[in-house]
Amino acid sequence: MDEPKTIKGRRDLITLSQRIHAAFSKLVFGLTCISGAALLVMMLVTCADVLGRLFNRPLTGAFDIVRIAGAVTVACAIPYTTAIKGHVAIEYFFHKFGRGGRIVIDTVMRIMVMALFAALTWQSTQYGRALRAVGQVSSTLEIPLYWIPYLIAFCCAVTVGVTFSNLLHPGKEMIKP
Fold this sequence. Notes:
This protein is mostly helical. The chain has helices at about 5-55, 60-85, 100-135, 145-170. Helix content is about 75%, strand content about 0%. The N and C termini lie far apart (about 45 Å).
């Protein structure tokens, strides 16, 4: 016997939701790997520069590389930190409210976070366009810098999606740490 249309449609919607969640989780994990790799680059470049200075041979462009890797590290780590709900929270006052009050406050705060990261996405994109228009490059190695605000914008947009997922599934991390 065929299933009623509403049950089949509901199952298809759940399957689609699960696929989107899985793809989004993989994206967040991929950004986390990029963040870790950038952190490793910062560490290796700093060590190489320090060792090079011992032999009067500092690493040319170390400051540029560390500065860029630092921006990549922070930007790419934000979606994962949001997904595991790892941000610092002041819960002393939060727990003074009843369950209903906590739900309202949590919902309002998540909407505000989504608005903030949406604004950061927009502003980072605009800044990236401005850097590209003037041809801004790093001071020593002359690496184009316009892509960094674009990466930050992308990570902020992913954070909006993660926060929306957290809003739809309260009390549950998107990814287990």
